[in-house]
Design brief:
This protein has 327 residues and is α/β, with parallel strands linked by helices. The protein is built from eleven helices and ten strands. The strands form two sheets. The chain has a six-stranded mixed β-sheet, sandwiched between helices. The chain has a four-stranded antiparallel β-sheet with strand order 2-1-4-5, covered by helices on one side. The site of magnesium ion has 5 residues, from helix 3.
Amino acid sequence: MQALLSGVPIVMVQLGAVTAWAIHVSGHWGLATTLLVTGAVNGFDWFGRVAGAVITEAPGTRAWQQATSRFAGGHDLMELPPGLDLVTGESPRPSTGERDRFEQLQLVGLTAVHDDGTLGAIDVDLTVHRGELVLLLGQIGSGKSSLLSAMAGLVSHRGTLRWNGRAVDDTQAFLRPGRVAHVAQVPRVLSGTFADNIRLDHDREVDRSIVDARLARDVEDAGGAHALVGHRGVRLSGGQVQRLALARALAADAELLVADDVSSALDATTEVELWDSLRARGSTVVGATTKRAALARADRVVVLVQGRVAASGPWSELEPDWGHLAG
Ligand SMILES: Nc1ncnc2c1ncn2[C@@H]1O[C@H](COP(=O)(O)OP(=O)(O)OP(=O)(O)O)[C@@H](O)[C@H]1O
Ligand SMILES: [Mg+2]
């Protein structure tokens, strides 16, 4: 159909031009008339093509729009969300997450399932109460990050997760700041300033979080909270990235802080100071660490072996059997 619709006008137009010149050669038309007619006929070629394209391209375009709109969750992509301006970069303020006083988080037979089906942590039973510091310990690949991510709704799960006794189905939507803040093992940094990275466009307290996350000296050396961190944070060391992510999580002032592997960013004394100051604030923290001094501060240590909970209790009880896992 497409070949026909774009081919026929071309052939017709060329026939028209040849005919005009034939009339000229036979002596009926002068040169000016012939040039005018061939020019006009060539111009019609364009109309033919456009008309052909409308007929042949329209169904494909419509199908493409419908498919992309389905990917976008049913939104019409030609219609911008209210308050968004692509030219000026204006966008609506982010909404502040819902918040309710945290009393307890209960995992019952929770299995963290990664996108490719890999089971990260398997059949975990764990209850975290308000104000507690619970630290996970385990060898590399034992499932600490997977479990923590599932507790922050970042990895899907099987089993039950209860927030204040209520089962949560859509963890991705429910476990967000102000309920839960998550510090990833390898956090993402935006190519802006320290303050941008901490505020994330919200109205959040920056300076206190920088101090609490033990990032104050680094920020001062860089020239203040409005210093740039480079493309996706290339100017920062691994430890600085981790502390920046921690500051971001603290600024969210969430009910529950889930902090993966902050020990790689802090020395033992600073880490203990951090946990102590969070306890003083009454924060509830679930984290992963390898530091003995930090483990000794925890209300409960949970040992993971190949994704399963092998032991759980105060570090004083676990140390004889599991001390080899701590650094
Ligand atoms: N995004 C992912 N997709 C698929 N499998 C994953 C993913 N992340 C982790 N895994 C797998 O899940 C298991 C547990 O990994 P996890 O990262 O939770 O361990 P970890 O205890 O945090 O290790 P580490 O001490 O190195 O941080 C491993 O077998 C790992 O290969
Ligand atoms: Mg990990």
